């Protein structure tokens, strides 16, 4: 009996010893878990502080940017300048954002982008064209930056008077006026050219008899439905900065038709509406096939 009791006591002692060892083994694991949690918390706190700083910086830039747009860059600089490095950095960020937005706006409205060339001795201007929300051709123009600005290589169509526009706009003192006038001519040309393309695509019953490289003259052959009378319609775009004609002439065998109220309205419509859209209206009203 004593031997069994002794074995029982030894068994209990052995079990207690194993439990004690088990308890001693757990604390390091728990300590590691605590360290990992503390490390995660520290990382999250750092990330939170960084996000707060970014938000505050962005709010300051937006505030300064709004002041620049409202008052002008120079006035906003004076108002927000406290002489610190942070202030200088914020003003630089705001100006950079403003410049990026201006360049993007110029591009969207068919304006121009400028990059330096020849190690800063010249610039290349890219003038994008578009019509009715569709980007069309982009033209490039090099300008040498010397004492006197000089136009270098370019791929602008020869019928666009680049040199004349440079003289008229006084490129030497106001290069923006020159680029604005050139962009206006190019976009007007692109718009007229696109209209001719749309007439051919949308109006199979209308025949384009004649046009020129500048798309400043457009001669169409229309047909009146009932009498099947052929009508010769000439659109003259004398103002090369616009997409609408300055003069519309109607000719046909029926001498009374051009002077009729309906066709007088059609002539006005063709002067005030892009030709491909005007033809759609005329077709809906039953004036042409």
From TrEMBL:
The answer to whether the entry has keyword Nucleus is yes
Keywords, comma-separated and alphabetical: Centromere, Chromosome, Nucleus
Gene Ontology, cellular component aspect? Mis6-Sim4 complex; nucleus
Q: What InterPro entries does its record include? A: CENP-O
Q: Where in the cell is it found?
A: Chromosome, Centromere; Nucleus
| Pfam families per the UniProt record, alphabetical | CENP-O (PF09496)
**Can you tell me which family this protein belongs to?**
Belongs to the CENP-O/MCM21 family.
PANTHER family from the xrefs? CENTROMERE PROTEIN O (PTHR14582:SF1), INNER KINETOCHORE SUBUNIT MAL2 (PTHR14582)
Question: What is the protein name given in its UniProt record?
Answer: Centromere protein O
Native source species: Myripristis murdjan (pinecone soldierfish)
């Amino acid at each position: 009996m004593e031997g069994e009791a002794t074995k029982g006591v030894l068994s209990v002692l052995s079990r207690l010893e194993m439990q004690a060892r088990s308890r001693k083994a757990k604390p390091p694991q728990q300590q590691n878990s605590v360290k990992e949690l503390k490390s995660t918390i520290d990382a999250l706190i750092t990330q939170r502080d960084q996000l707060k700083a970014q938000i505050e910086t962005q709010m300051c830039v937006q505030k300064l940017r709004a002041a620049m747009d409202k008052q002008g860059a120079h006035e906003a600089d004076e108002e927000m300048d406290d002489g610190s490095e942070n202030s200088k950095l914020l003003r630089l960020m705001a100006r950079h954002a403003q410049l990026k937005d201006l360049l993007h706006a110029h591009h969207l409205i068919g304006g121009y982008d400028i990059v330096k060339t020849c190690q800063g001795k010249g610039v290349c201007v890219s003038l994008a064209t578009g019509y009715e929300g569709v980007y069309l051709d982009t033209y490039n123009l090099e300008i040498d930056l010397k004492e006197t600005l000089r136009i270098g290589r370019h791929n602008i169509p020869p019928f666009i008077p680049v040199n004349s526009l440079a003289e008229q706009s006084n490129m030497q003192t106001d290069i923006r006026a020159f680029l604005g006038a050139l962009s206006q001519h190019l976009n007007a040309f692109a718009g007229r050219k696109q209209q001719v393309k749309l007439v051919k695509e949308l109006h199979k019953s209308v025949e384009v008899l004649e046009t020129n490289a500048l798309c400043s003259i457009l001669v169409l052959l229309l047909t009146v439905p009932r009498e099947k009378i052929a009508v010769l319609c000439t659109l003259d775009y004398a103002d090369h900065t616009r997409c609408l004609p300055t003069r519309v002439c109607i000719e046909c065998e029926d001498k009374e038709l051009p002077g009729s109220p309906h066709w007088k309205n059609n002539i006005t419509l063709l002067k005030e509406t892009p030709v491909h859209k005007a033809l759609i209206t005329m077709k809906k009203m039953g004036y042409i096939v």
